[in-house]
Design brief:
Layout: H1 9-17, E1 26-31, E2 34-39, H2 51-89, H3 95-102, H4 136-142, E3 150-152, H5 159-167, E4 174-178, H6 181-193, H7 195-201, E5 202-206, H8 209-214, E6 220-225, H9 232-241, E7 242-252, H10 255-258, H11 263-270, H12 280-297, E8 301-311, E9 314-323, H13 325-328, E10 335-341, E11 347-351, E12 353-358, E13 361-366, E14 383-390, H14 397-409, H15 417-428, E15 438-439, H16 440-447, H17 454-463, E16 468-471, E17 474-480, H18 484-497, H19 508-513, H20 532-535, H21 564-572
Parallel strand pairs: 3-4, 3-6, 4-5, 6-7
Antiparallel strand pairs: 1-2, 7-9, 8-9, 10-11, 10-14, 12-13, 15-17, 16-17
Helix pairs in contact: 2-14, 9-12, 14-15
This protein binds S-adenosylmethionine and zinc ion.
């Protein structure tokens, strides 16, 4: 761990900052190991609610450093083996291969990957060529793994950069950027204020992050984007600035846009149409991932999601970025359109592409469609079509479990320990291969019936031979691989024992209930109907610690109606608190003809 220990820090502060700073004008804010000076007039952006965001990022960075080290060791030992074998068989290593490996060598030590794509160079030179041996001892010397270099592209006060530098063992240089002069001045003051280790590691620059990232291609092991509102304008340059195998961390707080409040704005920013449904927060994550992938693809790169979370009033994704023209071809297999019935809660996914493998060669084709008929087979109403979304896994469960274990082992190093443990625990129990989720209350709302308990419903799904889990994105959400026809049969069986009042014949619920179930649901309590965390009574969702736990505007700005997409309608109407379910989808889900200008 870096930084001066308590006791010496005050002296260091004085030595570093007292000559130029009148402390009476400032309050000191401490988060984790870092302390920042906040001017009484508070010109620089600081939002303490983002402690969850910063803690989680620190946890992911710690895991990244460890896994990167393991991958590097594995890479070297693989190469050593190949090299030893080759030196017996072929005395000289081909120059092309040495060139391929040079991207992994002295100045770019981070081109180490796991899995098959590990050998893909930045231009995928080796795709169709068997990997050849290299001159092992020399390369080994060149391949000393340097500490990871981090870019905090939108740094404001520098608190995040300072926490990274002071709290994360093994971290390299941290470059903090901001295009606001007052922020850069504050950041520089804060760097000094945090002592010698921070001063040695953190550098602050006044720059437009987009220009800086474009002019520093493949230079950073980690790029962190934490903007006001949408990150969309930063994505194209950010995906270029990350080294192969490096990590992009990205926040988006424009939840009203991403959750379907302004579909046309979402399309213009992210290239996807959002849907107003209970799963909208997970859909928001998947829209952001699809958007990052699309930017990466422009440079023959692709993403591997590590962790994607909805927390508080924002979403945050952690993805690794690799280069490979051949893997990039698989992108349409990882994307889907979503058909959402306007009458009932049925939704269906349609993959953009498919492959056919013949004699070891893979061919890429458009996906088959449409995935649904014109009218919903459950209730007869039409579908809205959203997407494309990222429909491949949004987390790497091995990473998640390893982060969870590490966080538990370092409890006192995380000020937001309870919150990040709750999120990681719920994420660790999500079905990894099931995009989006159902909401039991919505299903019951459609049928106008009383709700079975989650345990009873989960049991019926499990007893029918399907999988089911919760989701971190909503306390009421349920992920399942059961088809909608099975879900409605379970609900029909439930209603047989819990009858509903007669409803008008054109209602979706009436149409659904007019059919006899093909499956006889078994509501006997199944052993796996509670998740491990539920069984152990581990908290999975926590209330906000205080009122006004929400997004903030740029320093010094007043809240006006134009901030509705960033802060949500509640904030703009006078209350800045933006809590679960505030997004517009919850209230306006069943809209047959949603307009784009709500
Ligand atoms: C939400 S704040 C960052 C908060 C910070 N990451 C933290 O954890 O405390 C966003 C910052 O991005 C800066 N910013 C906005 N556009 C920028 C650009 N094009 N280049 C660099 N900085 C920019 C703003 O001045 C602001 O300080
Ligand atoms: Zn329907």
């Amino acid at each position: 761990m870096g930084g001066a220990k308590d006791g010496t820090i005050e002296e260091e502060h004085k030595a570093n900052a007292s000559t130029s700073v009148d402390f009476n004008d400032y309050t000191i804010i401490k988060e984790g190991e870092a302390e920042i000076l906040m001017h009484r007039n508070n010109q620089v952006f600081f939002n303490k609610t983002q402690v969850n965001n910063r803690d989680l990022s620190i946890a992911v960075l710690r895991a990244f450093i460890e896994i990167r080290k393991q991958e590097h060791e594995a890479f070297l030992s693989r190469k050593t083996k190949v090299g030893t074998k080759a030196s017996k068989e072929t005395p000289e290593a081909p120059a092309a291969e040495a060139a391929m490996d040079s991207s992994v060598g002295s100045d770019k030590p981070n081109g180490v990957h796991d899995g098959n794509v590990a050998e893909a160079s930045s231009e995928d030179a080796c795709c169709d060529t068997p990997v050849q041996p290299i001159n092992t001892p020399e390369v080994k010397v060149q391949r000393e793994l340097k500490p990871p270099k981090v870019l905090e592209a939108l740094s404001a006060s520098g608190l995040r950069a300072l926490r990274y530098a002071r709290e994360i063992e093994g971290i390299g240089q941290v470059v903090a950027l901001d295009n606001d002069k007052a922020s850069v001045e504050a950041c520089r003051r804060n760097i000094k204020f945090n002592g010698s280790v921070a001063s040695a590691k953190v550098e602050s620059n006044l720059a437009d992050a987009r220009v800086y990232m474009l002019t520093h291609p493949k230079e950073f092991d980690v790029v962190d984007l934490d903007p006001y509102g949408s990150p969309s304008v930063f994505l194209d340059s950010a995906v270029q600035s990350v080294v192969d195998g490096g990590m992009l961390m990205c926040t988006a707080t424009d939840m009203a846009v991403l959750c379907g409040g302004n579909a046309e704005v979402c399309y213009s920013k992210y290239g996807s149409i959002p849907l107003r449904a209970k799963y909208c927060h997970e859909m928001a994550l998947r829209i952001l991932l699809a958007c990052i992938e699309s930017h990466a693809n422009r440079y023959k790169r692709y993403i591997v999601p590590i962790l994607s979370v909805r927390m508080d009033f924002y979403i945050r994704v952690f993805v690794r970025i690799y280069s490979s023209a051949s893997v990039m071809k698989e992108t349409p297999l990882k994307l889907s359109y979503v058909y959402q019935c306007v009458g009932c809660d049925s939704f269906h996914l349609q993959q953009l592409g498919r492959t056919v493998t013949k004699n070891n060669s893979v061919k890429y084709y458009p996906g088959y469609g449409p995935a649904v008929p014109q009218e919903c087979t459950d209730c007869g109403k039409r579908f809205n079509m959203g997407g494309p979304i990222w429909s491949a896994p949004i987390h790497d469960q091995e990473w998640v479990n390893s982060i969870l274990t590490d966080v538990k082992a370092m409890k006192d190093r995380y000020p937001a320990y309870d919150r990040i443990i709750a999120v990681l625990t719920t994420v660790s129990e999500e079905l990894p291969d099931v995009p989006l989720f159902l909401c039991l209350h919505n299903l019951c709302g459609t049928l106008k019936c009383t709700s079975p308990s989650a345990v009873i419903f989960r049991s019926a799904v499990l007893n029918a031979g399907y999988r089911i889990s919760g989701t971190h994105a909503s306390p009421l959400g349920l992920k399942t691989d059961a088809p909608m026809s099975v879900i409605w049969d379970i609900m029909r069986c439930w209603v047989k024992n819990h009858p509903v009042k007669p409803q008008p014949p054109d209602q979706s619920g009436t149409v659904i209930l007019s059919k006899e179930p093909e499956l006889q649901a078994n509501f006997t309590r199944a052993i796996a109907s509670l998740s491990k965390a539920q069984a152990k009574k581990v908290a999975r969702f926590l209330p906000n610690p205080e009122r006004h736990w929400g997004p903030k505007l740029r320093a010094g700005r007043q809240v006006t109606s134009k901030h509705v997409s960033l802060l949500g309608p509640e904030a703009v109407n006078g209350s800045a608190n933006y809590e679960e379910g505030d997004e517009p989808e919850a209230k306006r889900q069943k809209t047959e003809n949603p307009t784009f200008d709500s």
